[in-house]
């Protein structure tokens, strides 16, 4: 039996997949030339490609499953895969609010220091984004900490600057999710291919994230408004990541419970 709430969420998943990236994301995709110098200065000093694995491990360590299990009132995380979509959504909402608040505070502090603050700020907000994805998955009963491709796909979707990028990222993410069994693992036949693809994608996405976040936060280099820009852009970015993660795991929950046919993009 499909509840009214589940039907409503399925419709919202479909609407999210079809929606164009926010106007500000599209604007940052074509940043005015007067800010390009800031991006050119920042990106080479952000070692995201080299440190992405460490950021990911930190995010995994911070995504404490016990808190989700306690707040949900269940004995183990797996129960949330079948329990109640509304409950999982409430858990995810709490995770999102906390992450946005922390991102805003961190961005405001680093925003005061201008260019050098950005070098530290971007890896920090990427770690928080990864942690948010893993925590959101736990809210729906899915442990994807060992499935980095899922996190990479959600980051790519949420960071898209236009509909073409978003559609391509969604297609890749759906291919990855289709390989995941209900237990959260890849099928044996696809395991090696998936690992190889993950390594390539991580390097490519790290570079894309460096550029995209530097573009979004270029105004952070302007004196007097750096803290305001840093805090607001961080919160906005985490909001985008949180929404993408929520829709992806809602979709997985509905499919796994055979509530509705998969909502196609």
UniProtKB/TrEMBL annotation:
Pfam families according to UniProt: EcsC
Protein's UniProt name: EcsC family protein
Source organism (scientific name): Hydrocarboniclastica marina
